[in-house]
């Protein structure tokens, strides 16, 4: 049997350069060098393509991230504007509320002051004119002599704490005005109030007739009788 052996083909790259004097110079590059060079070029091309693809993907992701960040910034900007508006609204409401509370406090203080003033037993104890003198003996007391159809009235708002008999005048009414003040009314008429009643200023305690024209009026401060003239308003 005849055997044929295959021979591997070889090739070379020949570079020809003509010199200035006309001579020809040849350079031969072996196939191994060409193959290595081709392989290197191929790898470089692959590397460049891979780099290009990677850069494209990276740029795409970066652009996507930038877009997401822009959207997030816009959303935060919108939220910040909304919060600013809400904060401004809340500030306005707080200002209005503070002003309302301040006015309410002023009104309450005024009402409280008015309540205290009304409770002070400074009024005139009769609804009409009368003669007046000071008691000469005992605790400080003003003695009024009124005409008929004049009423004995409260000199301030308060609560009736007692309605009882009086040895000299017949009936004794004591009214507590708070803040340590009490007023005492001594008269021979029939009491028109009862124990525990809350009375306003000017409320009728006795109706003056022929037999009870005289009124003994006293003021107690912190359990001590004081001169009624210190507080009484003679003009009623």
What would you note in describing this structure?
The protein is an alpha+beta fold and 236 residues long. It folds into 2 domains: 11-88; 130-230, Glucose Permease (Domain IIA). The protein is 38% helix and 29% strand. It is built from 1 helix and 12 strands. It has one helix spanning 31-119, and strands spanning 12-18, 24-30, 130-134, 142-146, 151-153, 158-166, 170-178, 181-187, 198-199, 204-207, 214-221, 224-226. The strands form 3 sheets. Strands 3, 4, 6, 7, 8, 9, 11 and 12 form an 8-stranded antiparallel beta sheet that branches. Strands 1-2 form a two-stranded antiparallel sheet. Strand 7 (170-178) and strand 8 (181-187) form a beta hairpin. The protein is rod-shaped, with a radius of gyration of 58 Å. The mean pLDDT is 86.
Number of helical regions: 1
What CATH architecture of the largest domain do you see?
A: Distorted Sandwich
Top CATH class of the largest domain? Mainly Beta
Backbone CA Rg? 58 Å
Q: Pairing-aware structural class of the strands and helices?
A: alpha+beta
Q: What is the total domain count? A: 2
Sheet with the most strands, sense and barrel status: 8 strands, antiparallel
- CATH fold title of the largest domain: Glucose Permease (Domain IIA)
The shape is rod-shaped
Portion of residues within helices: 25-40%
CATH level-four homologous superfamily name of the largest domain: Glucose Permease (Domain IIA)
Number of strands: 12
SSE succession: EEHEEEEEEEEEE
Distance, first to last CA: 159 Å
The share of residues in extended strands comes to 25-35%
Round the mean pLDDT to the nearest integer and report it. 86
List unreliable stretches of 5+ residues. Answer: none
